[in-house]
Specification:
The chain is α/β, with parallel strands linked by helices. The chain contains 18 helices and 7 strands. Helix 13 packs antiparallel against helix 17. The termini are far apart. The mean pLDDT is 84.
Length: 379
Protein backbone atom coordinates (compact mmCIF):
# COMPACT_ATOMS: atom_id res chain seq x y z
CA UNK A 1 0.00 0.00 0.00
CA UNK A 2 1.40 3.37 -1.05
CA UNK A 3 2.19 5.68 1.85
CA UNK A 4 -0.05 8.74 2.09
CA UNK A 5 1.67 12.11 1.74
CA UNK A 6 -0.19 15.16 3.04
CA UNK A 7 -1.14 17.73 0.40
CA UNK A 8 0.95 20.48 2.03
CA UNK A 9 4.08 18.40 1.31
CA UNK A 10 3.01 16.68 -1.90
CA UNK A 11 2.07 19.95 -3.59
CA UNK A 12 4.73 22.14 -1.99
CA UNK A 13 5.96 24.65 -4.61
CA UNK A 14 9.28 23.71 -6.22
CA UNK A 15 9.81 26.86 -8.30
CA UNK A 16 9.20 30.59 -7.80
CA UNK A 17 6.44 30.42 -10.40
CA UNK A 18 4.41 27.93 -8.36
CA UNK A 19 4.58 29.89 -5.06
CA UNK A 20 1.03 30.96 -4.16
CA UNK A 21 0.15 34.55 -3.31
CA UNK A 22 3.67 35.98 -2.77
CA UNK A 23 4.48 37.46 -6.18
CA UNK A 24 6.10 40.55 -4.67
CA UNK A 25 8.64 38.28 -2.92
CA UNK A 26 9.34 35.89 -5.79
CA UNK A 27 9.71 38.68 -8.37
CA UNK A 28 12.26 40.50 -6.18
CA UNK A 29 14.27 37.33 -5.55
CA UNK A 30 14.29 36.37 -9.24
CA UNK A 31 15.46 39.84 -10.23
CA UNK A 32 18.20 39.71 -7.58
CA UNK A 33 19.45 36.40 -9.01
CA UNK A 34 19.20 37.63 -12.59
CA UNK A 35 21.06 40.89 -11.89
CA UNK A 36 23.58 39.29 -9.51
CA UNK A 37 22.41 41.49 -6.62
CA UNK A 38 22.03 38.77 -4.02
CA UNK A 39 22.35 39.86 -0.41
CA UNK A 40 24.24 37.63 1.99
CA UNK A 41 21.54 37.64 4.66
CA UNK A 42 17.75 37.54 4.26
CA UNK A 43 14.98 37.70 6.84
CA UNK A 44 11.68 36.14 5.78
CA UNK A 45 8.91 37.10 8.19
CA UNK A 46 5.16 36.60 8.18
CA UNK A 47 2.32 34.41 9.54
CA UNK A 48 2.54 30.63 9.62
CA UNK A 49 2.02 28.60 6.48
CA UNK A 50 2.49 31.39 3.92
CA UNK A 51 5.67 30.12 2.21
CA UNK A 52 8.68 31.44 4.13
CA UNK A 53 10.64 28.18 4.36
CA UNK A 54 9.42 27.13 0.91
CA UNK A 55 10.80 30.31 -0.69
CA UNK A 56 14.06 29.87 1.24
CA UNK A 57 14.49 26.36 -0.19
CA UNK A 58 13.60 27.47 -3.71
CA UNK A 59 16.12 30.33 -3.46
CA UNK A 60 18.81 27.91 -2.22
CA UNK A 61 18.08 25.54 -5.08
CA UNK A 62 17.94 28.22 -7.78
CA UNK A 63 21.18 30.06 -6.96
CA UNK A 64 23.14 26.79 -7.19
CA UNK A 65 21.55 25.61 -10.44
CA UNK A 66 24.03 25.25 -13.32
CA UNK A 67 21.48 25.81 -16.10
CA UNK A 68 19.00 28.49 -15.08
CA UNK A 69 16.01 28.88 -17.41
CA UNK A 70 15.28 32.11 -19.27
CA UNK A 71 12.69 32.88 -16.56
CA UNK A 72 15.32 32.57 -13.79
CA UNK A 73 14.05 29.23 -12.52
CA UNK A 74 16.01 26.10 -11.57
CA UNK A 75 16.32 23.56 -14.38
CA UNK A 76 15.60 20.49 -12.19
CA UNK A 77 18.03 18.47 -14.34
CA UNK A 78 21.58 19.42 -13.37
CA UNK A 79 23.57 17.62 -10.66
CA UNK A 80 22.90 20.40 -8.12
CA UNK A 81 19.12 20.33 -8.69
CA UNK A 82 18.84 16.53 -8.60
CA UNK A 83 20.84 16.30 -5.37
CA UNK A 84 18.65 19.03 -3.85
CA UNK A 85 15.42 17.29 -4.93
CA UNK A 86 16.59 13.99 -3.43
CA UNK A 87 17.53 15.68 -0.14
CA UNK A 88 21.23 14.89 -0.55
CA UNK A 89 22.57 18.37 -1.26
CA UNK A 90 25.56 19.37 0.86
CA UNK A 91 25.04 23.04 0.05
CA UNK A 92 21.86 23.55 2.08
CA UNK A 93 21.80 23.43 5.88
CA UNK A 94 18.56 23.83 7.81
CA UNK A 95 18.55 24.64 11.51
CA UNK A 96 15.46 24.69 13.71
CA UNK A 97 16.19 27.50 16.18
CA UNK A 98 13.32 26.37 18.41
CA UNK A 99 15.32 23.31 19.47
CA UNK A 100 18.84 24.53 18.65
CA UNK A 101 18.92 27.95 20.28
CA UNK A 102 22.11 27.92 22.34
CA UNK A 103 25.47 29.61 21.77
CA UNK A 104 27.04 26.19 21.14
CA UNK A 105 24.59 25.48 18.29
CA UNK A 106 25.47 28.78 16.61
CA UNK A 107 29.20 28.16 17.08
CA UNK A 108 28.85 24.78 15.34
CA UNK A 109 27.08 26.55 12.49
CA UNK A 110 29.80 29.21 12.25
CA UNK A 111 32.47 26.48 12.09
CA UNK A 112 30.73 24.98 9.04
CA UNK A 113 30.50 28.35 7.27
CA UNK A 114 34.27 28.44 6.66
CA UNK A 115 34.20 25.51 4.23
CA UNK A 116 33.51 26.27 0.55
CA UNK A 117 30.82 24.30 -1.34
CA UNK A 118 31.90 21.14 -3.15
CA UNK A 119 29.23 21.52 -5.85
CA UNK A 120 27.76 24.83 -6.93
CA UNK A 121 28.54 28.41 -5.99
CA UNK A 122 26.85 28.95 -2.62
CA UNK A 123 26.27 27.31 0.72
CA UNK A 124 22.88 28.33 2.08
CA UNK A 125 22.02 28.28 5.79
CA UNK A 126 18.29 28.35 6.56
CA UNK A 127 17.47 29.10 10.20
CA UNK A 128 13.78 28.56 10.94
CA UNK A 129 11.99 30.24 13.89
CA UNK A 130 15.07 32.40 14.37
CA UNK A 131 13.36 34.51 17.05
CA UNK A 132 13.80 31.52 19.42
CA UNK A 133 17.56 32.02 19.59
CA UNK A 134 18.85 33.16 22.97
CA UNK A 135 20.37 36.63 23.38
CA UNK A 136 23.82 35.11 23.70
CA UNK A 137 23.31 33.08 20.52
CA UNK A 138 22.20 36.21 18.64
CA UNK A 139 25.32 38.05 19.78
CA UNK A 140 27.56 35.14 18.78
CA UNK A 141 25.97 35.22 15.33
CA UNK A 142 26.39 38.96 14.66
CA UNK A 143 29.93 39.08 13.24
CA UNK A 144 29.44 36.12 10.90
CA UNK A 145 26.11 37.48 9.70
CA UNK A 146 27.65 40.87 8.88
CA UNK A 147 30.81 39.59 7.17
CA UNK A 148 30.26 36.02 5.99
CA UNK A 149 32.49 34.33 3.36
CA UNK A 150 31.51 35.03 -0.25
CA UNK A 151 30.07 31.55 -0.67
CA UNK A 152 27.73 31.76 2.38
CA UNK A 153 24.14 33.01 2.33
CA UNK A 154 21.93 33.10 5.42
CA UNK A 155 18.14 32.95 5.24
CA UNK A 156 16.39 33.56 8.56
CA UNK A 157 12.68 32.78 8.87
CA UNK A 158 10.38 33.90 11.67
CA UNK A 159 6.74 34.42 12.58
CA UNK A 160 7.63 36.99 15.25
CA UNK A 161 9.81 39.70 13.74
CA UNK A 162 9.43 41.97 16.79
CA UNK A 163 11.40 39.49 18.93
CA UNK A 164 14.54 39.79 16.79
CA UNK A 165 17.15 42.26 18.07
CA UNK A 166 17.74 45.39 15.93
CA UNK A 167 21.40 44.52 15.29
CA UNK A 168 20.28 41.35 13.47
CA UNK A 169 17.57 43.21 11.53
CA UNK A 170 20.07 45.82 10.33
CA UNK A 171 22.25 43.09 8.76
CA UNK A 172 19.44 41.48 6.71
CA UNK A 173 17.30 42.23 3.71
CA UNK A 174 13.79 41.96 5.16
CA UNK A 175 10.95 40.36 3.20
CA UNK A 176 7.44 40.57 4.67
CA UNK A 177 5.18 37.72 3.55
CA UNK A 178 1.47 38.46 3.28
CA UNK A 179 -1.46 36.36 4.36
CA UNK A 180 -2.59 34.55 1.21
CA UNK A 181 -5.86 35.76 -0.33
CA UNK A 182 -8.94 33.54 -0.14
CA UNK A 183 -9.15 33.52 -3.94
CA UNK A 184 -5.58 32.24 -4.30
CA UNK A 185 -6.02 29.53 -1.65
CA UNK A 186 -9.30 28.42 -3.21
CA UNK A 187 -7.73 28.19 -6.68
CA UNK A 188 -4.80 26.16 -5.32
CA UNK A 189 -7.16 23.75 -3.56
CA UNK A 190 -9.15 23.41 -6.79
CA UNK A 191 -5.91 22.47 -8.59
CA UNK A 192 -5.11 19.84 -5.93
CA UNK A 193 -8.65 18.44 -6.13
CA UNK A 194 -8.47 18.20 -9.92
CA UNK A 195 -5.06 16.51 -9.81
CA UNK A 196 -6.24 13.99 -7.19
CA UNK A 197 -9.49 13.26 -9.03
CA UNK A 198 -11.66 14.77 -6.30
CA UNK A 199 -14.96 16.50 -7.06
CA UNK A 200 -15.19 19.67 -4.97
CA UNK A 201 -17.85 22.38 -4.88
CA UNK A 202 -16.54 25.94 -5.21
CA UNK A 203 -18.33 27.02 -2.02
CA UNK A 204 -16.74 24.12 -0.12
CA UNK A 205 -13.23 25.19 -1.12
CA UNK A 206 -13.96 28.82 -0.23
CA UNK A 207 -15.11 27.84 3.26
CA UNK A 208 -11.83 25.98 3.77
CA UNK A 209 -9.89 28.99 2.43
CA UNK A 210 -11.72 31.37 4.79
CA UNK A 211 -11.20 29.08 7.78
CA UNK A 212 -7.45 28.86 7.02
CA UNK A 213 -7.07 32.60 7.77
CA UNK A 214 -4.45 33.25 5.08
CA UNK A 215 -2.32 30.13 5.71
CA UNK A 216 -1.99 27.76 2.76
CA UNK A 217 -0.55 24.95 4.88
CA UNK A 218 -3.58 25.09 7.20
CA UNK A 219 -5.88 25.06 4.17
CA UNK A 220 -4.17 21.95 2.76
CA UNK A 221 -4.45 20.19 6.13
CA UNK A 222 -8.17 20.98 6.35
CA UNK A 223 -8.63 19.85 2.73
CA UNK A 224 -7.06 16.46 3.56
CA UNK A 225 -9.30 16.20 6.63
CA UNK A 226 -12.43 16.92 4.57
CA UNK A 227 -11.46 14.32 1.96
CA UNK A 228 -11.01 11.76 4.76
CA UNK A 229 -14.45 12.72 6.07
CA UNK A 230 -16.43 12.94 2.82
CA UNK A 231 -14.45 10.86 0.35
CA UNK A 232 -13.80 12.05 -3.20
CA UNK A 233 -16.90 14.24 -3.29
CA UNK A 234 -16.37 17.46 -1.33
CA UNK A 235 -19.65 19.31 -0.76
CA UNK A 236 -20.42 22.58 0.98
CA UNK A 237 -22.70 20.81 3.48
CA UNK A 238 -20.08 18.24 4.48
CA UNK A 239 -17.40 20.93 4.92
CA UNK A 240 -19.45 23.24 7.16
CA UNK A 241 -20.60 20.22 9.20
CA UNK A 242 -17.05 19.02 9.82
CA UNK A 243 -15.38 22.42 10.29
CA UNK A 244 -18.12 23.70 12.62
CA UNK A 245 -18.94 26.61 10.29
CA UNK A 246 -22.37 28.20 10.46
CA UNK A 247 -24.29 27.90 7.17
CA UNK A 248 -24.62 31.29 5.43
CA UNK A 249 -28.31 30.46 4.76
CA UNK A 250 -28.97 31.09 8.48
CA UNK A 251 -27.62 34.62 8.15
CA UNK A 252 -29.70 35.35 5.05
CA UNK A 253 -32.82 33.98 6.77
CA UNK A 254 -32.32 35.88 10.01
CA UNK A 255 -31.47 39.16 8.21
CA UNK A 256 -34.69 38.92 6.17
CA UNK A 257 -36.62 38.37 9.41
CA UNK A 258 -34.88 41.31 11.11
CA UNK A 259 -35.63 43.60 8.18
CA UNK A 260 -39.34 42.68 8.18
CA UNK A 261 -39.67 42.75 12.01
CA UNK A 262 -40.52 39.03 12.14
CA UNK A 263 -39.32 38.58 15.72
CA UNK A 264 -40.68 35.05 16.15
CA UNK A 265 -38.60 33.79 13.19
CA UNK A 266 -35.55 35.65 14.53
CA UNK A 267 -35.76 34.07 18.00
CA UNK A 268 -36.63 30.58 16.70
CA UNK A 269 -33.76 30.65 14.19
CA UNK A 270 -31.30 31.75 16.88
CA UNK A 271 -32.59 28.93 19.12
CA UNK A 272 -32.04 26.44 16.30
CA UNK A 273 -28.48 27.70 15.86
CA UNK A 274 -27.76 27.22 19.58
CA UNK A 275 -29.32 23.72 19.50
CA UNK A 276 -26.97 22.82 16.65
CA UNK A 277 -24.07 23.41 19.01
CA UNK A 278 -22.91 26.84 17.85
CA UNK A 279 -21.74 29.48 20.31
CA UNK A 280 -23.71 32.72 20.59
CA UNK A 281 -20.53 34.78 20.27
CA UNK A 282 -19.60 32.88 17.11
CA UNK A 283 -23.06 33.66 15.70
CA UNK A 284 -23.05 37.38 16.53
CA UNK A 285 -19.58 37.81 15.01
CA UNK A 286 -20.73 36.02 11.86
CA UNK A 287 -23.86 38.18 11.67
CA UNK A 288 -21.66 41.29 11.86
CA UNK A 289 -19.59 39.98 8.94
CA UNK A 290 -22.81 39.29 7.02
CA UNK A 291 -24.16 42.81 7.57
CA UNK A 292 -20.77 44.23 6.57
CA UNK A 293 -20.98 42.26 3.30
CA UNK A 294 -24.45 43.69 2.63
CA UNK A 295 -23.07 47.22 3.09
CA UNK A 296 -20.25 46.39 0.68
CA UNK A 297 -22.88 45.36 -1.91
CA UNK A 298 -24.56 48.75 -1.68
CA UNK A 299 -21.87 50.35 -3.85
CA UNK A 300 -20.80 48.85 -7.19
CA UNK A 301 -17.22 50.04 -6.57
CA UNK A 302 -16.83 48.07 -3.32
CA UNK A 303 -18.41 44.79 -4.49
CA UNK A 304 -14.89 43.55 -5.27
CA UNK A 305 -14.26 43.42 -1.49
CA UNK A 306 -16.78 40.56 -1.25
CA UNK A 307 -14.79 37.31 -0.99
CA UNK A 308 -17.54 34.79 -1.79
CA UNK A 309 -18.49 32.60 -4.75
CA UNK A 310 -20.58 34.00 -7.59
CA UNK A 311 -23.88 32.35 -6.59
CA UNK A 312 -23.56 33.60 -2.98
CA UNK A 313 -22.66 37.07 -4.30
CA UNK A 314 -26.01 37.19 -6.14
CA UNK A 315 -27.81 36.40 -2.86
CA UNK A 316 -25.97 39.25 -1.16
CA UNK A 317 -26.85 41.68 -3.96
CA UNK A 318 -30.51 40.69 -3.79
CA UNK A 319 -30.72 41.07 0.00
CA UNK A 320 -28.76 44.34 -0.03
CA UNK A 321 -31.43 45.89 -2.27
CA UNK A 322 -34.14 44.95 0.27
CA UNK A 323 -32.31 46.55 3.23
CA UNK A 324 -31.78 50.28 3.66
CA UNK A 325 -28.28 51.60 4.34
CA UNK A 326 -29.54 53.27 7.52
CA UNK A 327 -30.90 49.93 8.80
CA UNK A 328 -27.60 48.12 8.05
CA UNK A 329 -25.44 50.78 9.70
CA UNK A 330 -27.53 50.91 12.87
CA UNK A 331 -27.68 47.08 12.98
CA UNK A 332 -23.89 46.92 12.68
CA UNK A 333 -23.57 49.32 15.64
CA UNK A 334 -25.84 47.17 17.82
CA UNK A 335 -23.99 43.99 16.82
CA UNK A 336 -20.65 45.60 17.62
CA UNK A 337 -21.80 46.61 21.11
CA UNK A 338 -23.13 43.10 21.71
CA UNK A 339 -19.84 41.58 20.54
CA UNK A 340 -17.83 43.78 22.93
CA UNK A 341 -20.02 43.11 25.99
CA UNK A 342 -20.74 39.41 25.28
CA UNK A 343 -17.98 37.89 27.43
CA UNK A 344 -18.78 40.00 30.47
CA UNK A 345 -22.55 39.34 30.34
CA UNK A 346 -23.96 36.92 32.94
CA UNK A 347 -26.78 35.81 30.62
CA UNK A 348 -25.07 35.66 27.25
CA UNK A 349 -28.04 34.23 25.36
CA UNK A 350 -30.24 37.09 26.57
CA UNK A 351 -27.51 39.54 25.51
CA UNK A 352 -27.74 38.31 21.91
CA UNK A 353 -31.54 38.13 21.92
CA UNK A 354 -31.82 41.75 23.12
CA UNK A 355 -29.51 42.84 20.31
CA UNK A 356 -31.58 40.92 17.74
CA UNK A 357 -34.83 42.43 19.02
CA UNK A 358 -33.33 45.94 18.94
CA UNK A 359 -32.31 45.41 15.32
CA UNK A 360 -35.72 44.02 14.33
CA UNK A 361 -37.41 47.23 15.53
CA UNK A 362 -35.04 49.63 13.78
CA UNK A 363 -37.29 50.12 10.75
CA UNK A 364 -40.34 50.75 12.96
CA UNK A 365 -38.41 53.31 15.01
CA UNK A 366 -37.37 55.10 11.80
CA UNK A 367 -40.97 55.24 10.56
CA UNK A 368 -42.18 56.61 13.93
CA UNK A 369 -39.48 59.26 13.85
CA UNK A 370 -40.54 60.34 10.36
CA UNK A 371 -44.19 60.58 11.45
CA UNK A 372 -43.22 62.80 14.37
CA UNK A 373 -41.41 65.13 12.03
CA UNK A 374 -44.55 65.48 9.90
CA UNK A 375 -46.80 66.45 12.85
CA UNK A 376 -46.79 70.26 13.22
CA UNK A 377 -45.85 71.73 16.56
CA UNK A 378 -48.79 73.30 18.46
CA UNK A 379 -48.78 77.07 18.47
Amino acid sequence: MERFVVSARKYRPQTFETVVGQQHITTTLKNAIKNNHLAQAFLFCGPRGVGKTTCARILAKTINCFNLTADTEACDKCDSCTSFNSGQSLNVFELDAASNNSVEDIRNLIDQVRFAPQLGQYKVYIIDEVHMLSSAAFNAFLKTLEEPPKHAIFILATTEKHKIIPTILSRCQIFDFNRIRIEDISNHLAYIAKTEGITAEEDALRVIAQKADGGLRDACSMFDQMVSFGGNNLTYKSVIENLNVLDYDYYFKITDALNTQNTSTVLLTFNEILNNGFDGHHFIAGLGEHIRNLLVCKDAVTIQLLEVSENVKQKYLQQAQACSTQFLLKALGIINRCDISYKTAKNQRLQVEIALLQISYLNTASVDAEKKKMIPNPA
